[in-house]
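Practice problem: predict the structure.
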Amino acid sequence: MADKQDKSEEPAGLSDSAPHYHGHRERLRARFREAGSDAVSDYELLELVLFRAIPQRDIKPLAKELIAKFGSFAEVVAAPPARLNEIKGMGESAITELKIVQAAANRLARGLVKKRPVLSSWSSVLDYCRTSMAFADKEQFRLLFLDKRNQLIADEVQQTGTVDHTPVYPREVVKRALELSATAIILVHNHPSGDPTPSRADIQMTQSIIDVAKPLGIAVHDHIIVGKEGHASFKGLRLI
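Answer:
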């Protein structure tokens, strides 16, 4: 009877279920080590990330709920902390783990662009833009400043707006390019709706920046719009 009493007083998740989830964790880690990331699903990759933050609980249901709520691993990792906090079981430690992964992905993508001619590593530029902005819940207007060798000098978010609008001031864009001695810029912004199709306002704003920049010897190489559904290049669409 004493053994039963002791067992019933153990915290939830540390008695009968403990061997099950500990074994599951080790099997999942082994599959990841041996077969790589392609061998695990989005929710399983989330489990691997969250194991350290939530050590004493079966988190498969939580990982599946996060995917169901946000749509994919990338969207979960990029979700705002306030929205993640709405999910039962997502505490500060778990949210921090996800934000560390997001920061690491951004640093890795940026590292593939930095100190390389941007125009000759275009796929890396697109990957970086999508990693940085595609899943943001508000519009951001980002500028990539390039030197005469088309290498990245600086990467800055100039404005953050609402879910469907960001105020952009062409003279401020060009002023910053002059401050950095940039000879070219790439404009980047996101569409939180997911659809990267340029709007009439996007086209007009881009032309306004070109009109201010060109007389000062600053080229606008492209304007890239990113969203969950892909990206759109103004140059590729022959809009500039």
